[in-house]
Amino acid sequence: MAQIAQLAGSGQSRAETESIVVTTTEHHHVIRPVPVPGTDGPLLSVVFDRARTNLALARRELDQRAEVLLA
């Protein structure tokens, strides 16, 4: 994750990556690290149909479901 933070221009700060969103003409690809105590944790990758998805609401629900999935 350190490389991603450097690409985002965080420089010397200890910023953590919240998510990576890649948008194409047909899809939203969202990649989010899922925090697991004591490890770097897995990356959750989800693809949404752009025509049928509100990206902000989808990201919020993705966070909620990731918490339940790893509980």
Overview of the molecule:
This protein is α+β, with helices and mostly antiparallel strands and 71 residues long. It is 30% helix and 25% strand. It has helices at 2-7, 55-69, and strands at residues 20-23, 27-33, 43-49. Strands 1-2-3 form a three-stranded antiparallel β-sheet, with helices on one face. A hairpin with a 3-residue loop joins strand 1 (20-23) and strand 2. It is globular and about 40 Å long. The chain starts with a helix and ends with a helix.
Amount of beta strand: 25-35%
User: Strand order, biggest sheet?
Assistant: 1-2-3
Percent helix range: 25-40%
Counting DSSP H or I runs of 4 or more residues, the number of helices is: 2
**How far is the N terminus from the C terminus?**
23 Å
Structural class: alpha+beta
Overview features:
about 25% strand; alpha+beta; three-stranded antiparallel beta sheet; about 70 residues; 2 helices
Nutshell version of this structure?
The chain is α+β, with helices and mostly antiparallel strands.
